[in-house]
């Protein structure tokens, strides 16, 4: 039975290797920004109904408040909708795919599948050396989730790295089938300097993710670049409080959080398939 299921997953994932991933994502980017009036509002209503989206916590709660689907998808929440806990908090609403310790420069993607920390970090050996033996948490954002990304800890943005790549889907099926998925997909790496040292918040692009953007630099993709790009920031140039907005996905994807060794530990109640809300306590600082 397991072998049949594995074959089925591989078969269903196969088209993703041949479809024009970036073209389809550019198309999605344009479609979701279309201002279609009553048609757009009807689509938003159907989406809310199908995915059981909780609009009571949205700053604008009516479908007619949004002039495009993307405006709805990246909606802001009420100021008190997500209390910020102590310690290190979840940067997003989502579900934990995997979490644990980084061992031998490898991160667990799914049962029986690891991927390279160095590759995830765009080939940066100094960053991979720094985070090796530290902690990782991979959080999947489903279509119904709030799609803004927030800082998991107070700190300063010191570096941002754009790494070009594929745009495979990041759902559970593809994570069990596509090798090195998170190190192959396009991603944006934000390095924060914090009280516990460097912390990495990584935005991972995916199929139909129309764009990724940050609060301080605006839209990073599209256009899709063909080479690694990096931005350096001075100390105190970009300070973020814990829970402060960093950026957003225009359509859904995944965030990977990296913590340095011996500085924190994941709270015991968190495990794969645990649902999280942005601001919820995720890790406790080491004493």
Automatic annotation (TrEMBL):
<feature type="site" description="Cleavage (non-hydrolytic); by autocatalysis">
    <location>
        <begin position="252"/>
        <end position="253"/>
    </location>
</feature>
<keyword id="KW-0443">Lipid metabolism</keyword>
<protein>
    <recommendedName>
        <fullName>Phosphatidylserine decarboxylase proenzyme</fullName>
        <ecNumber>4.1.1.65</ecNumber>
    </recommendedName>
</protein>
<keyword id="KW-1003">Cell membrane</keyword>
<keyword id="KW-0456">Lyase</keyword>
<keyword id="KW-0472">Membrane</keyword>
<feature type="active site" description="Charge relay system; for autoendoproteolytic cleavage activity">
    <location>
        <position position="150"/>
    </location>
</feature>
<keyword id="KW-0594">Phospholipid biosynthesis</keyword>
<dbReference type="Pfam" id="PF02666">
    <property type="entry name" value="PS_Dcarbxylase"/>
</dbReference>
<dbReference type="InterPro" id="IPR033178">
    <property type="entry name" value="PSD_type1_pro"/>
</dbReference>
<dbReference type="GO" id="GO:0006646">
    <property type="term" value="P:phosphatidylethanolamine biosynthetic process"/>
</dbReference>
<comment type="function">
    <text>Catalyzes the formation of phosphatidylethanolamine (PtdEtn) from phosphatidylserine (PtdSer).</text>
</comment>
<comment type="similarity">
    <text>Belongs to the phosphatidylserine decarboxylase family. PSD-B subfamily. Prokaryotic type I sub-subfamily.</text>
</comment>
<keyword id="KW-0865">Zymogen</keyword>
<dbReference type="GO" id="GO:0004609">
    <property type="term" value="F:phosphatidylserine decarboxylase activity"/>
</dbReference>
<keyword id="KW-0210">Decarboxylase</keyword>
<feature type="active site" description="Schiff-base intermediate with substrate; via pyruvic acid; for decarboxylase activity">
    <location>
        <position position="253"/>
    </location>
</feature>
<dbReference type="InterPro" id="IPR003817">
    <property type="entry name" value="PS_Dcarbxylase"/>
</dbReference>
<keyword id="KW-1208">Phospholipid metabolism</keyword>
<dbReference type="GO" id="GO:0005886">
    <property type="term" value="C:plasma membrane"/>
</dbReference>
<feature type="active site" description="Charge relay system; for autoendoproteolytic cleavage activity">
    <location>
        <position position="93"/>
    </location>
</feature>
<dbReference type="InterPro" id="IPR033177">
    <property type="entry name" value="PSD-B"/>
</dbReference>
<comment type="subunit">
    <text>Heterodimer of a large membrane-associated beta subunit and a small pyruvoyl-containing alpha subunit.</text>
</comment>
<feature type="active site" description="Charge relay system; for autoendoproteolytic cleavage activity">
    <location>
        <position position="253"/>
    </location>
</feature>
<keyword id="KW-0670">Pyruvate</keyword>
<feature type="modified residue" description="Pyruvic acid (Ser); by autocatalysis">
    <location>
        <position position="253"/>
    </location>
</feature>
<comment type="pathway">
    <text>Phospholipid metabolism; phosphatidylethanolamine biosynthesis; phosphatidylethanolamine from CDP-diacylglycerol: step 2/2.</text>
</comment>
<comment type="pathway">
    <text>Lipid metabolism.</text>
</comment>
<keyword id="KW-0444">Lipid biosynthesis</keyword>
């Amino acid at each position: 039975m397991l072998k049949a299921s594995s074959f089925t997953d591989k078969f269903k994932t196969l088209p993703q290797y041949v479809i024009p991933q970036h073209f389809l994502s550019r198309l999605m980017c344009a479609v979701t920004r279309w201002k279609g009036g009553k048609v757009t509002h009807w689509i938003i209503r159907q989406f809310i109904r199908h995915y059981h989206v909780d609009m009571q916590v949205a700053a604008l709660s009516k479908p007619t408040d949004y002039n495009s689907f993307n405006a709805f998808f990246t909606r802001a929440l009420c100021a008190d909708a997500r209390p910020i806990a102590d310690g290190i908090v979840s940067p997003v609403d989502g579900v934990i795919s995997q979490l644990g310790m980084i061992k031998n420069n490898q991160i667990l993607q799914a049962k029986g599948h690891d991927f390279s920390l160095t590759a995830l970090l765009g080939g940066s050996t100094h960053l991979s050396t720094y985070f090796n033996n530290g902690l990782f948490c991979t959080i999947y954002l489903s279509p119904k989730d709030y799609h803004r990304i927030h800082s998991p800890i107070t700190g300063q943005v010191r570096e941002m790295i754009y790494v070009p790549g594929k745009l495979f889907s990041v759902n559970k099926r593809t994570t069990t089938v596509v090798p090195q998925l998170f190190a192959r997909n396009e991603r944006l790496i934000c390095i924060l300097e914090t009280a516990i040292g460097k912390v990495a918040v990584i935005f991972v692009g995916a199929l139909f993710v129309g764009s990724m953007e940050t609060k301080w630099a605006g839209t990073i993709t599209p256009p899709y670049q063909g080479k690694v790009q990096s931005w350096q920031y001075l100390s105190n140039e970009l300070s973020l409080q814990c829970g402060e907005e960093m950026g957003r996905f225009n359509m859904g994807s995944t965030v990977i959080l990296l913590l340095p060794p011996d500085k924190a530990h994941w709270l015991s109640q968190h495990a794969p398939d645990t649902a999280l809300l942005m601001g919820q306590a995720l890790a406790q600082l080491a004493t």
